[in-house]
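Sample entry (219 residues):
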Amino acid sequence: MRWYDSLAVLVLFSALAHADDVRVTREIFRTPEALAIIRGAERVEICVLRYNSLRGKKDDYRSYSEDRYVPLDQSTAALVTWKLAEDSSYTWDTAIDANPWWCARARLWKGSHFVTVDMSFDADLVVFSKDGCYFADAICGSGCEWLFQVVEEKFPKDRAVIRAKMQREERRRQLLQYEKARAVEAERRRANQSLEPTPTAVTPRACARVAPAVGVAHH
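Predicted structure, serialized as tokens:
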């Protein structure tokens, strides 16, 4: 590959990355400041959330209290910040329709500012707050899988985490059965289509043999 071809590839990847940044900023973080805190986080910590019925409904993240925070090591913190800031972690153009149960919270610090991320692993939802003020929520499909693994690694024996793991496994089983049913239905439709009679194609030359010429008298 010639040097200017390599440069073109680098420019293309840079443009794609910038496009992702623009979309993440516009549709989730709304302003560059919150995204900058996540990407430049100097300290990342997580905790398990405990539901407090006196605070409100179970699907409201504000109805939960924080348990003990655990700091993340450098590589784990890098994984969390990467997944939270990556465009492919989120499911776009899909409305949120769920009654989530909130399991864990991550807190990312940069200087005196912080972003908190409340995580629902049964619904793959995340809620973002900056310095304690809500600013966005999103469906975090593939990203939640990595975030849950981090939470499970830090709190393997916590009942809330075990419950979340069981819910995720059950959802995977249901999804597997759903996909199997779709596959059977697709196979049935293909079989029905193969049984339908195929119409015989009539060529123009064949038409000429069987149809009289227009305007020609026959005796």
